[in-house]
Amino acid sequence: MNIREKQEEYEREYLSPYATHSVDSKGRDVNEEECDVRTVFQRDRDRILHCKSFRRLKGKTQVFLDPTGDHYRTRLTHTLEVSQIARSITRALRLNEDLTEAIALGHDIGHTPFGHAGERTLNRVCSLGFTHYEQGVRVVEVLEKDGKGLNLTKEVRDGMLNHKTSGHPSTMEGKVVRLSDKIAYINHDIDDAIRAGIFDESRIPKDITDVLGHSTKSRLNTLINNIIHESEDRNDICMSQDVHDAMMDLRKYMFDNLYTNPIAKSEEIKADKMIAELYEYYMEHVTELPEKYLRFMEERQEAKERVVCDYIAGMTDTYCINKFSEIFIPIAWKG
To answer: Which pLDDT band holds residue 197 (cuts at 50, 70, 90)?
Structure first.
């Protein structure tokens, strides 16, 4: 029995009856020889962690566009916080931590530059539509490794696709990530908003803080522990009604006071204009796309609109700004 098989045996003996076992995975689109050391979900986690799209998350906006301080979250640090929260819940419930981690690390891999602002712009200008969760699956199925994709298991892709609020993950681990995403962004975005002077802790409504707590630390503790206690020995990931309602009220408060705040979001109109202009430019000058994307159209018969979205969505904030400047901003004559 090799190391992988020992780990699979450990899962059978130790994990909850509601956990997803590696040996029972629905598999990959392309069959591969099994690894002697790692389970299928461990391999998926490693593939995501080492891919280029994951590394680029460090240069993509979470909430604040190109913040001057060093401590504001990026899309990468958000992803790591989601992973940490999800793994804590998963371990306590004896679910499959490797599957949870793979889904968490990949859940935002399809995000655009400038966060949800860029996502809204591409969805508006592209006739085929655009969402970051569908793009994430496209990244790992098609775009990574020069068009070969990462060949991830169906369970990981399902969790990535369904991490949105209205999603319905097919595994318990996917359900954990879906809730952990909300817990992470609500709480760390409050932390960033306080750091930015948008509001302070005292302005959060008392009926919310009385349930969840009066600090980021206490709110995280309340939410994580509530999920664990409410989900123990159940075939679902649950929260008590009072805690769930308070979390959703806090989410609404954040939308009203941060996510649509004119101070925090004052630069988004510029990002929207920039991405829209880049999209129109490449639609008219498609041959200026990198060779890889031209191959997607020629060999895979991909639609031009989709491939232009692929290129722009993969950009970091800085690369997007530089590309816009290169195309649209005149350069001083050096005669």
So the answer is: confident
Among residues 257, 276, 283, 330, the alpha carbon closest in space to that of 114 is found at 276
Q: Are 61 and 74 in contact (CB under 8 A)?
A: yes
β-bridge mates for residue 61, sequence order: 74
Give the contacts of 13 (CB within 8 A, at least 6 positions apart). Answer: none
Give 37-67 pLDDT, tens digit per residue: 999 999 999 999 999 999 999 999 887 666 5
Domain of 312 in residue numbering reads as 268-327
Q: Are 237 and 231 in contact (CB under 8 A)?
A: yes
- Measured between alpha carbons, how far is 1 from 159 in angstroms, rounded to an integer? 30
Contacting residues for 270 by C-beta, under 8 A, at least 6 apart: none
Give Cα 1 distance to the centre of its chain.
Answer: 36
Number of domains comprising the chain: 1
Question: What CA–CA distances, in Å, run from 11 to 38, 181, 262, 295?
Answer: 13, 25, 49, 42
Q: Which helix (H) or strand (E) holds 278?
A: helix 268-284
Residue ranges with strand state E in the chain: none
Residue 299 lies in a domain: yes
Residue 316 lies in a domain: yes
SS3 content of the chain, % helix, strand, coil (to 5): 65, 0, 35
Cβ atoms of 57 and 77 within 8 Å: the answer is no
313 in a structural domain: yes
Residue 143 is assigned to a structural domain of this protein: no
Question: Which residues, including other chains, have CB under 8 Å from residue 318's CB and lie 6 or more apart?
Answer: 59, 66
Q: What is the pLDDT of residues 209-227, one digit of tens each?
A: 999 999 999 999 999 999 9
Name the pTM for this structure: 0.95
Q: In whole angstroms, give the CA distance from residue 223 to residue 202.
A: 20
**Cβ-Cβ contacts under 8 Å for 220 (sequence gap 6 or more):** 85, 183, 187
